[in-house]
Amino acid sequence: MAKLSKRRAAVEKLIDKSTAYTLDDAMAKVKEVNVAKFDASVDLHIRLGIDPRKADQALRGTVTLPHGTGKTKRVLVFCTPDKEEEAKEAGADYVGLDELVTKVQGGWTDFDVVVAAPNVMAQVGRLGRILGPRGLMPNPKTGTVTPNIGAAVSDVKGGKIAFRVDKYGIIHASVGRVSFSADKLKDNAKEVLDTIIKMKPSSAKGTYLKSITAASTMSPGVPISTKI
């Protein structure tokens, strides 16, 4: 642990905290200051000038990253038998209803995304206390409650991610892995930021993009200019 701390202290000096880096420079810097010994996730932390307690400012949405997430997402689909083949062909990892509902009620959460057909939400709704706190509850706003099961699964497998603002007005979104080139990370980050900018609530006053930071897992953050 001491060795990691020493490395972390060394890379901290490589970041000019008084500078807001361009997206290009920031992604190159994130790779430079990464201290993880594995292919760490690269995340954006975007602080917005909104009040998440107001319904029209509680931002949530989805974005498809041009270069994917770098991680194969395990998708669980709740559906009736007539939709099972469609889900499997699209690449779903777990497909079914009653048996899977029971399994999740028992504490199983070995999956990354849940997609559900609208006609089974009565059963899936019972899982709210398990799925909700983990951010796994399917929702029409993120396209995970839909009759188009195959398309939803394909989107997730192809790099579609969901995001939502937390109670502090911050959106955390993964834009790839440290193994990605700086250009790919920049493209993915720009797609996320452009999407969030387009979603600015009309009732939001003052500065919308307050701060943007990029960081890989366990590594120091790199400040990014809000002039995108």
What report would you give on this structure?
The strands form three sheets. Strands 7-1-8-9 form a four-stranded antiparallel β-sheet, with helices on one face. It is built from eight helices and nine strands. Helix 2 packs across helix 8. The chain is an alpha/beta fold.
Query: Strand sequence of the main sheet, in spatial order?
Result: 7-1-8-9
The total of helices stands at 8
Poorly predicted spans: none
Quick check: average pLDDT?
93
Q: Any idea what the shape is?
A: globular
Fraction of residues in β-strands: 15-25%
Q: Give the SSE order as H and E letters.
A: HHEEEHEHEHHHEEHEE
Briefly note the structural class of the backbone: alpha/beta
The amount of helix comes to 25-40%
What distance lies between the first and last C-alpha atoms, to the nearest angstrom?
37 Å
Q: How is the main sheet built?
A: 4 strands, antiparallel
Number of strands: 9
- For the CA atoms, what is the radius of gyration? 19 Å
Which short descriptors sum up this protein?
about 230 residues; alpha/beta; 4-stranded antiparallel sheet
